[in-house]
């Protein structure tokens, strides 16, 4: 039987659940404390304010993405790696969807978090370019350096703005589903269509089919 979570861990877990379900703006520290059945003072003993909770959640998200968004060492990339990266991104986006739902507000509210996010974004772009170079070296994609840079940037723009796009298109982002986020992953994959080598096309198109979600189910 797993050991019970400590109060600090319970606060983090409950905050993530509430932020994802209701949106960060709708949740206060009093809501979090009441949800856990603890006093606000007990919560403030562990976190001085809501921004500190958000910063810790972002740190966990950042660490998770840093862990998987890198080339494997000692071997060439495969189409299976493409599946791994896309599904890992989908899982991270879903688990921390509140971050993507209202990112601009979160960064405007916390200058330190905004600075950390800029460093994170720059790191992700560097790693994404390295991964795309790996797919080129493996004979899966055919691109030059400028195309790699552009594709990494366009992919980042889609990944970080997809939830907001859904919110503006649907009138709300409160009812997000994994299928809606899966369509965002598909959009990233679709950017690569013109760069797939003939030898890899069949395998990549099978991945297209697996990730595709009809637009009518999203908007």
Automatic annotation (TrEMBL):
<dbReference type="Pfam" id="PF00440">
    <property type="entry name" value="TetR_N"/>
</dbReference>
<keyword id="KW-0238">DNA-binding</keyword>
<dbReference type="InterPro" id="IPR050109">
    <property type="entry name" value="HTH-type_TetR-like_transc_reg"/>
</dbReference>
<feature type="domain" description="HTH tetR-type">
    <location>
        <begin position="5"/>
        <end position="65"/>
    </location>
</feature>
<dbReference type="InterPro" id="IPR025722">
    <property type="entry name" value="TetR"/>
</dbReference>
<dbReference type="Pfam" id="PF13972">
    <property type="entry name" value="TetR"/>
</dbReference>
<dbReference type="InterPro" id="IPR009057">
    <property type="entry name" value="Homeodomain-like_sf"/>
</dbReference>
<protein>
    <submittedName>
        <fullName>Transcriptional regulator, TetR family</fullName>
    </submittedName>
</protein>
<feature type="DNA-binding region" description="H-T-H motif">
    <location>
        <begin position="28"/>
        <end position="47"/>
    </location>
</feature>
<dbReference type="InterPro" id="IPR001647">
    <property type="entry name" value="HTH_TetR"/>
</dbReference>
């Amino acid at each position: 039987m797993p050991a019970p979570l400590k109060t600090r861990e319970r606060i983090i877990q409950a905050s993530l659940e509430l932020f994802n379900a209701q949106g960060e703006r709708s949740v206060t520290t009093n809501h979090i404390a009441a949800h856990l059945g603890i006093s606000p003072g007990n919560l403030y003993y562990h976190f001085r304010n809501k921004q500190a909770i958000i910063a810790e959640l972002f740190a966990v998200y950042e660490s998770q993405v840093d862990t998987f968004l890198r080339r494997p060492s000692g071997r060439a990339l495969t189409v299976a790696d493409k599946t791994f990266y896309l599904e890992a991104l989908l899982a991270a986006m879903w688990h921390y969807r509140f971050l993507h739902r209202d990112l601009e507000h979160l960064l405007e509210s916390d200058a330190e978090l905004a600075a950390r996010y800029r460093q994170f974004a720059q790191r992700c772009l560097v790693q994404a370019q390295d991964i795309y170079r790996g797919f080129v070296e493996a004979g899966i994609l055919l691109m030059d350096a400028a195309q790699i840079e552009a594709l990494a940037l366009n992919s980042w723009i889609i990944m970080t703005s997809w939830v907001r796009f859904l919110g503006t298109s649907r009138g709300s982002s409160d009812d997000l589903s994994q299928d809606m986020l899966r369509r965002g992953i598909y959009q990233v994959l679709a950017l690569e269509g013109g760069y797939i080598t003939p030898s890899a096309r069949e395998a990549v198109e099978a991945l297209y089919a697996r990730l595709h979600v009809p637009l009518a189910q999203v908007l």
